[in-house]
Every structure is written in structure tokens, then in C-alpha cells.
């Protein structure tokens, strides 16, 4: 794919993975946003300046990689471009992540940039069809996965979260704005009598209509650790629908914890 790449970097391992696979990329970080890679600093309040920077650096493709918290914006610092975009952006910021991120993609595309996903730039970043790491899931695990997928699909229209834990057919928790770690910590505190002896599974998948170029769900080593601490049997993800952040380390952790991770396409 032609054209220089810019990585608009947030926190976590993903920006570093994209940079390692694309060493000529321009890295851009944002004032007030934690980033785990170094780069040229930009500001959400001066999007016109960001677009000029990208063009001056010969950038044609843009990848938004890493976690970014919603910034606290100061209207008195807006440049001309941001003033023009502010009504649309501020309205979207009052809604869910899906609408906001879809708008961000449209804005970059309107400026002439091609938005690409990290999974398009880093080989092997998403699970292939049929992937199974660790033990083979049993019938009870598959039944729990189907139940979790149904709950996940039912919640998708209200833009709640990307994960669900089910044990013995009972929903032990859903992922909300606090994220995966908080969900699995909550599940770990579930009294044994409520679990009825079932271990359960964690199902992680994108929501229907989610903009995967900028907001694909991810799983890392910490996810595996917390799933084990929650007493779960394993993790189900859809093929091509979740980022595996450091697959070798995930594989080793799955083996060490006696869990499984399966790319599952549903019952």
C-alpha cells in the first residue's frame, strides 16, 4: 500500500507493534493523552495544525492505535478547523464510542487521508479461523460461549461493551466503560454458590457495526491472567475480530494457566 503512514498513538502495546512493523511511519502523540511511544506532539484542539503536519510530512495513510481517553477540550484554544468541526464532534462525544469514532474516521477521510487498521499493518495480529491455543473447549464451554454471544449481540444496539462472562448458562458480568480488567475482577469476586460449580468462559468480540479500523477489541497477557484468577475455563473470540497483543506471550500464559483461547464462529 503506497503513501507514508502516520501512527496516531495512545497508550498500550499496539502503537509499538505498528511502529515495529512500519519503521518509516510518523508517530504523533496528543497533549494530555498517555502514550507508550515517543512522537511529535499534537493537540485535539488544533486539528487544522495536525492536518497540516501530516501533509507536510507526506502522510497519506493514518492509523489510530492504542487507548485514548476522551480529552477535556478548551474552546478558547480551538483553531479554525476545530471551530468548524466542533459542533459535530461535541455532539458525538455525548454519545457512545461507536458514533464518535465513526465520525473521526469520516473527518480524516474528508481531509484526504486513508484510515487503516492496525490489523492491516501487523501480520498475525488477529486470530485466524480455527485457531485454538491450549486445551480443547468442552460442550459446556461451547454452550456458555453461545449464551455469551447472544447476550453480547442483544446489547450491541445500546453500545455497552465488547465482552461477557457466562458460567453454567448464567451471566456473571458484562463489560462496560470500566473495561475488561474491571469485568474480570468483578467475576472473580462472584460467590461460589452463584456459579453452581461451573467454571465459565469469557467471550470478547466487536459490537455490530463497530468501526474496526480504529476500535477493534484487544486481548493481552493480562487478560489471560485475570481470566484465570476469575476461575474461568477459557476465552472465545471471533476469527479476525480481536487483536492478540503479543501472541507468543499469550500462548505461553494460556499454557501456564491451563486455559484455552479459541477462535470461534458460533454455534
TrEMBL record:
Classification via InterPro entries: LpxI, LpxI_C, LpxI_C_sf, LpxI_N
Gene3D superfamilies in UniProt: 3.40.140.80, 3.40.50.20
A Pfam family assignment: LpxI_N
Residues in LpxI N-terminal domain copies: 4-125
Membrane-spanning residues: none
Domain LpxI C-terminal: 129-261
Name assigned to this protein: UDP-2,3-diacylglucosamine pyrophosphatase LpxI
